[in-house]
Amino acid sequence: MLRTKEMPHQVLKGFGRCIFCLADDKDLTEEHVIPYSLSGIGEIYIKDGSCGGCNSRINQQYENPLMQNDFKTIRAFLDLKRRKKKKPLKLPSTLSLSRGPIETSIEDTPPLIPLISLPPAGLLTGIDYGDGHAMDIGSVQITIVDLSAKSRKWGDLGANVQIAPGAQPMVMAKIAYAYACTVLGLDRVKGGAAHDLIMERRHDIYNVVGGLAVEEPLTSRHFHHLHLRKRGGWITVIVHLFASFGARPWEVVIGEAYE
Do the domain assignments include residue 4? Predict the structure, then answer.
């Protein structure tokens, strides 16, 4: 497996209005399709893509919690981009493994990513998971991706990793929606399932965001990869973060398909 943190550097043209609130009378700033904090070599962002208010709300509600909890170790281990790099990221000095707690230094912290493992989105399967961030189904699991190329056995961290509730699926929805805007155009994807979720007009997050609906080989030479798909009457985006390290992808329902 090619373990790389490279991806194409793309600066995409904006739409003259915020892709989230759709306002055209606000100061616009760049909107990263892949969050800046998950960028290694190369960035993908929409120039003048979002207004300051939407950008700040999304960062505070789920991007920042995700980067400071679930993805903090991978960011330190791979030295991903940070706005301020004067101080190193602080990682926990003690980790709880299945065999008990162990003391670690930053250099010895296991390079593992905790990823929520979900069934496909309810809109794609006809299963209604209801509103809210709680998901009372047995399929919700935490899977661990080992970033190292070593064969070391770290044990089961599933019950002990620090997770920001709801942050992973919401960030996947935001990535998918921003990507769909760049491929299909803002007018085609606004008001769809992913957009409504981000704008808090709907709260059934697991009806919109889930695991891969159709198993298929996804190979990539890049750190992260995004794929547009049509699933029956729906347009979806496969969000494959950490693709070059073997992580499982997510799939997000953008909206209804039309000719």
Answer: no
